[in-house]
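User: Let's play a game. I give you a shape written as tokens, and you guess the letters that built it. Ready? Here's round one.
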């Protein structure tokens, strides 16, 4: 079962940090979803009004058999 998790903005200052990728992968249990979350974090940039990011699992609308059962939503919390 996937659960929501948060990451502080300061932790995301270097999105290429391998430890950050591993932390996200540990929550999502998916390389593909972890990479997607990192791309989202990168798009938010260093907006100083953001306190942290909240990642929330959503049931996937599977279009093929091997698709992930969960997709992740990234929300910037101000």
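Assistant: Ready! My guess for every position:
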């Amino acid at each position: 079962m996937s659960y929501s998790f948060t990451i502080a903005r300061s932790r995301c200052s270097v999105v290429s940090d391998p430890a950050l990728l591993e932390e996200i992968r540990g929550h999502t249990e998916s390389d593909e979803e972890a990479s997607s979350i990192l791309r989202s974090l990168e798009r938010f940039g260093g907006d100083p009004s953001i306190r942290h990011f909240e990642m929330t699992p959503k049931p996937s609308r599977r279009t093929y058999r091997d698709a992930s059962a969960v997709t992740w939503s990234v929300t910037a919390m101000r």
